[in-house]
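To: structure subgroup
Subject: Chain for Friday's discussion

All,

I'm putting the inputs and outputs inline so they're searchable in the archive.
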Amino acid sequence: MACLEIGCGGGDLAFDMARMVGATGRVVGTDIDEKKLELARNEAREQQLHNVEFQLADITRTEPPTEFDLVHARFVLTHLRNPVQALAKMRTALRPGGVIVLEDIDFRGYFCHPDCAALWRYVELYTETARHRGANANIGPQLPALLLESGFEDVEMNVVQPAGTGGEVKLLNPITMENIADSVVAEGLASAEEIDQVVSELYEFARRQDTVLSAPRIVEAWGRVA
């Protein structure tokens, strides 16, 4: 198979795909961050994966060639002002019978125990910052409809949600809050002091062994080109 990974970042999924398709297959990973792409190229060399390549490309601006059997995009559409336009370009990249696989978030699906006010404030700030910038933090449940609207057939879906009492899944939330802090302040949604307090409370909650914390609900959806 020839596979296209949109928004490949450091290439982790592209490496998995390259191993799956084997020496007779081909994987192309694209991203808008050249630094991440260079990391991916170096890692591919270290892993001696010769059937994967990485290209600087923006799915909102360029149209990939029609030469792929599979297109995959994880946590990409949530950031776009016009996901339908991007899906049209992804569809163009597929040969007849080709498959598209999407994964994206639904920030409304968080859960925790016991209740944590800092978590809900973080969810609110992330969601509103995304909305202010034309993105959609709750696009996940829309994926099947978007695929049908874009002309795909045999559309199906699944839902997954990481959660736990310890480890990386609990640290994801305070780390993300730290990473979006400047954007939240720029949009006038919270002060730097409030964000520092939310981050501190999220770290404290995450480090307690008696708490349960989830990541966002994740919707997986896929379809086929006739």
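Points worth raising on Friday:
DSSP finds eight helices and ten strands in the chain.
The CA atoms of residues 174 and 200 lie 8 Å apart.

D.
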